[in-house]
Amino acid sequence: MANSERIFNPNEYGTEQYQQPNHRYQQQMDEQFSRRQIGYPIKGLSFDVQTVKLTSTMTQQAYKMLQNLIEAFPASQKSGPIPVVGTEKYRGVIFYDQLHLIDSTEYIVRSPLGFGYAVRKFLTVTTAPLLGSTSGEIKVTIEISPNRLLNVKEEPLIDFLNKQLLPLLTSPRLEQVSFKLDMPIISANFHAQLLDEAGAIQKVTNTLNADLEYETTRLYFADRTRSRELIITNEFQDLLTTQLLNGDSGSISSREAQWYQDHPDQRQFLTRIALRVNQPAAIKRFMRKHDWLMRDIVIDYRDSSGQQRFDGTAYATHGKDFRRSFTRMITYRLKAAQQTLKKLPYLTDEVWQNTLN
Predict the structure, then answer these.
(1) Cα 343 off chain centre by
(2) Which of 119, 168, 302, 320 has a Cα-to-Cα distance from 194 of 20 to 30 A?
(3) Of 348, 353, 345, 352, whose CA–CA distance to 49 is shortest?
(4) Residues 93, 67: contact at Cβ < 8 Å?
(5) What is the pLDDT of residues 227-262, one digit of tens each?
(6) Which domain holds residue 269?
(7) Which residue did the predictor score with more confidence, 145 or 265?
(8) How do residues 82-95 score in pLDDT, each as one tens digit?
(9) In DSSP terms, which residues pair with 252 in a beta bridge?
(10) Is 30 a domain residue?
């Protein structure tokens, strides 16, 4: 594992091979936020790829090579529950449950709404016996969060994924993709409807914290086969501050939270729209036609709360009022999300071929 230890050593980030794309990325981020307000930036709304799940079935013989690679990974850069050793026909096999393979570097990024995030880069590996298999095959799932990475081949963690992890998988394919879009509108004003056949799920959940300072609304929709899911959630400023107090390294930095404590009149609201596509057949349909993901879903924005439009909303939507054609706006932005997905360097031709065929 000496090679991997060299790759993951923080000093390796000083090499030109890595610094060049890294500097380009930082310049792009600096330019985006140079005119940054604490409110909403002059930037159109867009979907980010939140998570990508790759799966593969493997024979025990092939899996042992993957297992050896994971076991030899630097112990200080692994995090998760203690692996379980299999029994009977899986004797000698080690199963992993949400095991993080972590990069040794932490860095700060800005979300589109201006909040600062401290990000640890990692991949998540989960392995389990393949249900119904008579020959003792194993199912391997690798979950990647593109929003945590620079998404260039020179990234050490992506280089490790492409050159060492993926080649060991027998037939990797996309199993799940999720997108998210953050916007400055309160979801309580949404009227969402899923016009699907019997069996569709529609749930609304409201929760209050102990001090009744904020309310989180979660609208959840899933079609009959669970191949498409839509989740709309409210994230209030107090909720974001609470996440900080909980010590979640994926939450906002203390500097941003301090600004809101000093400016209590500038209360911020964030609505997050998440779309999830499950199963290769559904991903194939989405890649063929981006608007399929929003088919039979109607979202109206009804400003009946008496609340005034928030400052900066005009910038975030390029001055257009999407309240009358919200579904169309979401659908239009999925086209760009589709292109972003195609450009991810770890979704190789083999992965796409296995998924789409």
Answers:
(1) 15
(2) 320
(3) 345
(4) yes
(5) 999 888 766 544 444 343 333 343 334 444 444 555
(6) 2-25+35-356
(7) 145
(8) 999 988 888 889 99
(9) 117
(10) no
